[in-house]
Specification:
Helices cover 18% and strands 48% of the residues. The chain is built from three helices and ten strands, in the order H-H-E-E-E-H-E-E-E-E-E-E-E. The chain has an eight-stranded antiparallel beta barrel with strand order 1-4-5-6-7-8-9-10. Strands 2-3 form a two-stranded antiparallel ribbon. By secondary structure, the chain is of the alpha+beta class.
Length: 156
């Protein structure tokens, strides 16, 4: 009976931990990335403000840093025609399907001290992640239909 209780407690504690796949994603995403391009799934000219911050043109070339051990990061807008400077965020990778390796990525803008000012967040699909590239897909509604924004990163 005592052994059974120990086994059940061990299984319970092990099941509460972060999955191996999520831990690997956190290890891969760690570090500095550059947002190289932003594209849309529909052709045309769109006035899109990404992450309620700045335009697509401002985001392209931005520098991103991810610190998985405390789930924080920054991105710096470098385009001098835009509101430049560092922005802060918290992020979480949530496992969606261990077989495909696809995730939902929750990014919440914060102030410099890590406090969310309006508790707003953006759910983004981590479409691809490797040592050499990362791709996000953010789906919003446009005229009642899904509009997909794709963001491509490379390590710095």
């Amino acid at each position: 009976m005592k052994n059974l209780l120990i086994v059940l407690l061990t299984i319970t504690f092990m099941s509460c931990g972060t999955s191996k796949t999520v831990r690997q994603a956190n290890k891969t995403i760690k570090g500095n990335w550059s947002l190289t391009s932003v594209s849309y799934n529909k052709s045309g000219t769109y006035n899109v403000t990404l992450l309620n911050d700045v335009s697509k043109a401002c985001f392209e070339g931005s520098a991103w840093q991810f610190v998985p051990n405390n789930n924080t990061g920054t991105y710096a807008i470098n385009n001098t025609e835009c509101a430049t400077g560092d922005r802060y965020f918290n992020f979480t990778i949530q496992e969606v399907d261990a077989q495909t390796g696809l995730y939902d990525f929750l990014l919440k803008p914060t102030n410099e001290k890590g406090k969310s000012e309006n508790n707003q967040g953006f759910r983004i699909k981590l479409k691809a992640l490797s040592e050499t590239s990362m791709q996000w897909e953010h789906t919003v509604m446009l005229d009642g239909a899904p509009f997909v924004i794709t963001m491509n990163f490379i390590p710095q």
